[in-house]
Amino acid sequence: MKEKLEHILKNATEEINKSESIQDLENVKLKYLSRKGELNSIKKNLKDLSDEDKRVVGSFANNVSNELNKLIEERNSELYRIELNKKLITEKIDISLPSDFRPQGKVHPLTQTINEITEIFQGLGFSVMPSEYSPEVETEYINFDMLNFPPNHPAKDMQDTFYTKVAPNVILRSQTSGAQIRQMLNQNPPVRVISPGRVYRCESVSARKNNLFHQIEGLLVDKDITFSDLKGILNEFIRIYFGASRPTRFRASYFPFTEPSAEVDVQCIMCGGKGCKICSGTGWLEILGSGMVHVNVLKNVGIDPEIYTGFAFGMGVERLAMLKYAINDIRLFFNNDVRFLKQF
Ligand code: DAH
Predict the structure, then answer these.
(1) Protein residue with its CA nearest to atom 8 in ligand 1
(2) Strand, helix or coil at 258?
(3) H or E stretch including 218?
(4) Do residues 333 and 321 make contact, with C-beta atoms less than 8 angstroms apart?
(5) Second label for 163, Cα 20 to 30 Å away, from 38, 76, 110, 145?
């Protein structure tokens, strides 16, 4: 029996050393050391021996088993190292190869402009209105009536406003000013907010006009607010956005929801103020409407005009971008021509 064990030790050792992969080694282990392996079948016969022999042969069998386990472990880590080295050589990555071309997306120039304007107003103490106060599908009631439009105002005409079939008097909003109403219905003064968004108008499309464009509405209501606050804030915005050297002017105007009202013009960048097709020969382009919030509007939302006053403004985002970057056709913003978009 002892001879048999020595035989097993010799053969197994040879096979372990000859094994060339971890799988080979695993097979050797199964052959000799598993429950049905050669070593165990000898151990099973120990019961037929005398007590003395049982002790001697038993302990020798254990030694053989320990020795083989140790050899297998050593060979295993050796083989692991060999296989790893093989992998490192064959699976080498050539980091000098050119990579796949992946065109990178960018923020749309209109979004960039909205972000820039928003940041300026945040610096001036305004916060951005919750978007639920400025839905693009709006009621005539909010878009016009609450803003003090007289019942038969021409702007409500089908010419300018897109009506929907959702329900009578449900429209695509023609201006962001309705957001003022929702804000004031939800928040008592002081109010100091802006609200960017899309507006829609039923107009013939040209280099200057599109059916869809963007506005940023602004509203400030508090005690002791005057027209000079309006001028101060808007002049400061223009100075930051365009730089100090761009000529601008305030011009008296009319809006149903403000009194007094004013528009702000910026000198046309296309012609430097000489007059061209873009500015209809005037040398100026309007960028925003503004004014002191009308007493009737304050009353409509339940704010006491004896205690509070405020100003509001609404600016055209496309106009502001066109005037900053000398873009002479509003349609460029909506055609999604990558050659245009990637310049920003
Ligand atoms: N909503 C006006 C428009 O689309 C612009 C405007 C004018 C907004 C005066 C205002 C404002 O908030 O006070 O032409």
Answers:
(1) 314
(2) strand
(3) strand 212-222
(4) yes
(5) 110
- Alpha-carbon distances, residue 14 vs 1, 28, 42, 72, 77 (angstroms): 20, 10, 20, 11, 17
Q: Are 310 and 222 in contact (CB under 8 A)?
A: yes
Q: Is the pLDDT of residue 157 over 80?
A: no
Report which protein residue has its CA nearest ligand 1's atom 9: 290
Q: Is 177 in the pocket of ligand 1 (CB under 6 A)?
A: yes
Query: If DSSP codes are grouped into helix, strand and coil, which group holds residue 5?
Result: helix
Q: Taking a C-beta distance cutoff of 8 angstroms, is the pair 216, 193 a contact?
A: no
Q: Is 316 in the pocket of ligand 1 (CB under 6 A)?
A: no
Residue nearest to atom 10 of ligand 1 (CA): 313
Same domain as 123, residue 76: no
Please give the pLDDT value at position 176. 97
- Is residue 159 scored above 90 in pLDDT? no
- Output the residue whose Cα is nearest ligand 1's atom 12: 313
Cβ of 175 closer than 6 Å to ligand 1, yes or no, is yes
* Local structure of 315: helix, strand or coil: strand
Tokens of 315: 């600016």
Q: Does residue 116 form part of some domain?
A: yes
Domain identity same for 157 and 258:
yes
What single-letter amino acid sits at 166?
A: V
Looking at the structure, tell me whether residues 139 and 83 fall in a common domain.
Answer: no
Q: Which two tokens stand for residue 205?
A: 């499309």
299-327: per-residue pLDDT in tens?
Answer: 999 999 999 999 999 999 999 999 999 99
Substitution site in 290, 292, 315 for ligand 1 pocket (most atoms within 8 Å of beta carbon) = 290
Closest CA to 184 of 309, 91, 54, 80: 309
